[in-house]
Structure formats: structure tokens, C-alpha cells
Amino acid sequence: MTTKRKKPSPKIKGSVFDLTGKEVKTIALPEEVFAAPVNQALLAQAVRVYLTNQRRAQAKAKTRAEVVGSRRKIWRQKGTGRARHGDRYAPIFVGGGAAHGPKGNQNYRLKLTKKMRRAALRSALASKFQSREIVFVEGLKQIKPKTKVAAEALAKILAQLSSEKKKKKCLVVIPEVWEKPMRAFANLAQTEITLVQNLNPYWVLNFDYLLMAPEVMAILTEWLKPGRQNG
């Protein structure tokens, strides 16, 4: 008895452009990353955690002990018909200290587990890929470290992508510290360049397009594979 072999599922393909804006080839992408189910609830939680962790406790209100001024009793204890008081810097007086005000040491930090962080990033990348907003660009490592050259290359690549967006915020992702592209894209408006290790769901969703060097795929595949236990 012969058993029928299952046909392999078609690989997901990503477009690869060169610096002239020409699509030169396609590359196979890992399905466990770019075809992962999009968990909207987890994405919302990951974005909230990221934004909350950017918050810093800066507000500080003085207590009545910290307000500078005389500590003389505001009026005598008895005989005035008014309530008894000490100095005029009590919280009920204008100019007095604040009661239970912010102390400047509030802890706003939130956390996600490593498993949740990886799942959220998979969802963000899958959502972006389904919207055709992830492209791969070869030759980034050899680009001239000139802002004008980077701007021209970016304009040519974006011209090939059908979009009605007036503002096109782009995130360029590279696998390691490449000095030439980092200098070339550093001063471009609405454009950021980052290492693949620094990717997070908020950045992926906040930019209109992700321009990735093909070399990042090995790192993404290893780091985001389901079932990874550590790292």
C-alpha cells in the first residue's frame, strides 16, 4: 500500500530591490515569522508596555516641609474665632506645600515575558508583511555614506511600491553596525536606521515601510522561531 505524500506548502516570497529601485529577485521567508497569526490583543499590550516604559517620573511637588519661608505661627492659638493653625505653608493655604503630590520617584515600568515579546514581534512583522509594507534591499552595506545618495535610493524604492500615503516613514533594518548606511540614513527626515536586535512591535507598526537588508533574515529566523527556550 502506497501512501500519498503531502505536497509541500508554497514558500513565502519577499521582494528584493537594489539601490536603483529595481526588483532584482525574491527570497524565501520563514513562514513561522511572516505567516504567523496576528494577535491584536498581544500587539496592543506590547505597544502599551513600550510607550509606558518611555515615561519618566519628572514631576515633583514640594511638601510643606520643603517650602522655603518663615515657620512662624500664622496667628495665635486662641481668641481669634478662627481655626488653630501652625505656619502658613500647610496644604490648605495658597502657596503651601502639596499633600500627597508626585514625588519624582514613581515607577512606571512594565514587563513582557520573552515568549510574549517574540510572539508580539512575529505578529507585528506578519501584519506588516500582509500589508505589503516590508521590502528587502541589497547593497545597503556598500552604499556611499552620503545623505543625498540615501535619499535618491529611498525615493526610487518607494516609487515602486503602490501606496496612497503622503507621508512615508521608513525604518531601515541592518544586521550589525554598518558604518556607511548608518551615516547615509542618519539625517534623512522620517527615516530611522536600526539593528535587527533592536526591533520591537511599536517600531514595526509605527513606520509605514520596513526596508531590510537580506542578511537580517538569519538573525530573525533564529531569534523568533517558536519554541525557543532562552535568549
Structure description:
The structure is a single chain. The protein is of the alpha/beta class and about 230 residues long. The protein has two domains: about 10-55 and about 110-225, Ribosomal protein L4/L1 (Ribosomal Protein L4, Chain: A); about 55-105, no CATH class. It has helices spanning about 30-35, 40-55, 115-130, 145-160, 180-185, 200-205, 215-225, and strands spanning about 10-15, 25-30, 135, 170-175, 190-195, 210. Strands 2-1-3-6-4-5 form a six-stranded mixed β-sheet. The longest helix has 17 residues, at about 115-130. It is elongated. The protein starts with 11 loop residues before the first strand and ends in a 7-residue tail after the last helix.
Keywords:
single chain, 231 residues, alpha/beta, Ribosomal Protein L4, Chain: A, 2 domains
Sequence of secondary-structure elements: EEHHHEHEHEHEH
Q: How many strands in all? A: 6
Supply the CATH superfamily name of the largest domain.
Answer: Ribosomal protein L4/L1
Count up the helices. 7
User: Which regions are unreliable across 5 or more consecutive residues at pLDDT < 50?
Assistant: 5-10
Helix content estimate: 25-40%
Overall pLDDT, averaged?
A: 88
Could you give the distance between the termini? 46 Å
Order of strands, widest sheet? 2-1-3-6-4-5
Q: How much beta, percentage-wise?
A: 5-15%
* Proper CATH architecture of the largest domain: 3-Layer(aba) Sandwich
Radius of gyration: 28 Å
Q: What coarse outline follows from CA principal-axis ratios?
A: elongated
The biggest sheet amounts to: 6 strands, mixed
Q: What oligomeric state do these chains adopt?
A: single chain
Number of domains: 2
